[in-house]
Amino acid sequence: MMKYLLLIHGDESKMNAATVADETGMSPDYHAYNSAMAKAGILVGGERLRPTAEAASVRVNDDGTQVLDGPYAETREQLGGYYMIDVPDIDEAIQWAARCPAARHGTIEVRPIWPISRRIVG
């Protein structure tokens, strides 16, 4: 098994305008998607991100630390959330990314995660 991040990129104005449909705080399609991943035993974690207006970007250079409001790169799509899944290979990760409701109106980037060295954590 290997861990992958499914990075959800989309139009932030549309993501922020989305309304919740039930007591879970999710729309029915996201609730079904999350439930399917949990049932398959592959969901490690995931969260929706707050708007970029609440973000800060940090850079360190010879002049010291710079803190910038919001995301540094200007793009049409913003990172709006992520899932971390643990699946056998990238092909299965791609299949799960294709099932994500956001894939219908944005982009799901699939990124393998480097394992943390046991020497670092233990």
- Poorly predicted sequence stretches spanning 5 or more consecutive residues: none
In which range does the helix fraction lie? 25-40%
Radius of gyration: 17 Å
Number of helices: 4
Q: Estimate what percentage of residues fall within beta strands.
A: 35-45%
Large-scale geometry: globular
Secondary-structure element order, N to C: EHHEEEEHEH
Largest sheet: 4 strands, antiparallel
Strand count: 6
Structural class: alpha+beta
Termini gap? 21 Å
Q: Mean pLDDT, nearest integer?
A: 85
Question: Going across the major beta sheet, what is the strand order?
Answer: 2-5-1-6
How are the elements arranged and paired?
Layout (H helix, E strand, L loop, with lengths): L1 E9 L1 H6 L10 H13 L2 E6 L7 E6 L2 E6 L8 E10 L2 H10 L7 E6 L5 H4 L1
Antiparallel strand pairs: 1-5, 1-6, 2-5, 3-4
Task: Outline the structure in words.
With 122 residues, the protein is an alpha+beta fold. 27% of the residues lie in helices and 35% in strands. It contains four helices and six strands. The chain has a four-stranded antiparallel sheet. A two-stranded antiparallel ribbon has the order 3-4. A hairpin with a 2-residue loop joins strand 3 and strand 4. The longest helix is centred in the N-terminal third of the chain and has 13 residues. It is globular, with a radius of gyration of 17 Å. The two termini are 21 Å apart. The model has no long low-confidence stretch (mean pLDDT 85).
Key features of this structure:
122 residues; alpha+beta; two-stranded antiparallel sheet; 6 strands; 27% helix; globular
Brief overview, please?
Helix content is 27%, strand content 35%. It has four helices and six strands; from the N terminus they run E-H-H-E-E-E-E-H-E-H.
